[in-house]
């Protein structure tokens, strides 16, 4: 480029600042003592176990120092998202250099002793991880699992118009499916109301042991690829054949990077001004071509060129620890590597950073390591309407039908309305907002859409350039958006078909781990909870068949630490409304809500629902006939369809065995089943025994895989008496009732199970048992002929 935005003095300082970050990065990987090399380096100064990743780190350091210059020149607020999470030493080094680190960790100050402690703690027992972890100031994206940097960046930018989000994408990460889909996030970014996202694709050529795909494409191919995605790529390239000429190369690439970053910010500002003008003129915003940077530099840049005759710099051998075998020769090689950064020109004798270097870093909250947005310090609570005003009313339980999620949608519509001014609530999902019955939300907002419009779209009034519902057929991208939104302090809900939420299993894992870790970091504030609605669930996938039937996400969720996960199975609309209000008010959890969208029977008034949800489970007196005494059997349930089948089984048993004492128990908060020592919502053994008894048969109709109930209850006194029924991987295209029949969760099988397990029925129940078995045969014949369920099943209501 012709532009030379850096004076020679500033260029020199920035280059030395970069060298300081590189020196500190290498020191973290290797050094235990002797941080300033005041003594000749010896093996005893080097860590016994060498862990970490060097290859991507110098590139991350290079970008960081140039981002600092941009922040100071333009008075920006910037978030730095590190896709190559293995570059942890770089982000730690830069936050230490700028002074953020010692503000959060006063003992690791910018002195020789602080530097030594900085080095020792890295990848050391009871120290800090090698990733850009929650312990790293300014971080909101660990990057240990690849593919989420771009979706996190856009999630952080939505409704944050003052933020510039720098998303560094590693070329290895760029090969993942989630990352590939997330490039389309630019079709959802509002140029005025949202922040700027500046992706930087870092091509350094190699993964752990192989070349990367994008690094082997020509400039022309990469240009076409990203122009197709809707970006305008700017290239900053250090050619393989020239980077050995250190002096000329460093001068050149610093100027190129500075000029390119200036150009990108100018383009972003121009996009915003053009959008403002179009809005003022009453015109739709023209979808812009967003700038991005493609930076090509050697892997392991500035590191050893080769080790014992084998190529290292600009090769995959630099990915992790270049000197892993620390013999006498490599001790010498490491010392030479460290000294190549000329630490005496970077740090004073007492370990403090040279004053002329600290001067070029941003100050206060403008430092990327001190940005309050990524530490949860800017988060505001939602303004919540009174959920009790949305009550589904009825005179008698189990006789009126309603669509639970539709009622939830009315509440979410008004949450959207109440928070329109502070713009801190969004809904995401893979093309399922209307399908999952949240249609009322569209009375208040539309679907975000900046792709092209067709004439017929004018009749689709849910499309909007400023909508707050975001739909894309990539569960990964939806998850990434909402995580980025939550991690920067805002609130939302993610609705998804139950079977396909498994697509984000790994993303959930990473987020839950982040929440668990940050709960114990006092300078990070509690974040809004990540809320899922799982609907179109297993028991109402008779029309789609076997491929759409899987309730196993909740099994996956309960593997995580009890302090961060919650699972709710509201049986009707009023309990769902109560649970929704609780989830949106909560912080620092992952809340998984499983609820039906089809018309279903309603059981609890709003007052009853609030009390039931507050306890998490309870005896339904109106469905029980044990009169406060000792029951013969406990009929328990969790989930919408299991609740109906358990009630219908109770009805059958009471018709045929009027003297049978049945206690009916419904569970809405699944974690209450665990002992209180294992989960804060868990019941004490005494409470559990008082509800479920310690010696009576418990027939448990469960929404998911039945063995999860046994896993949660295995330490309970009466565990041997608990007989769970749930989904057993049976089902196809059939009828709703046939789904429960083939999994033996239906009313007839439940009633048969009670006859088999209650001692006093063993002698008198044979005729009734046969009648119920005959009903199952009748059911099979009826659906084969009529293609629908038996009228007595389809039209059943609670008769008492």
UniProtKB/TrEMBL annotation:
Keyword Lyase tagged: yes
Domain Xylulose 5-phosphate/Fructose 6-phosphate phosphoketolase N-terminal: 7-376
Cofactor: thiamine diphosphate
Record's keyword terms, sorted: Lyase, Thiamine pyrophosphate
Annotated ranges, domain Xylulose 5-phosphate/Fructose 6-phosphate phosphoketolase C-terminal: 597-798
Signal peptide as annotated in the record: none
Entry's EC annotation: 4.1.2.-
PROSITE patterns assigned: PHOSPHOKETOLASE_1 (PS60002), PHOSPHOKETOLASE_2 (PS60003)
Family per similarity comment: Belongs to the XFP family.
NCBIfam families according to UniProt: PRK05261.1-1 (NF003616), PRK05261.1-2 (NF003617), PRK05261.1-4 (NF003619), PRK05261.1-6 (NF003621)
Protein name per its UniProtKB record: Probable phosphoketolase
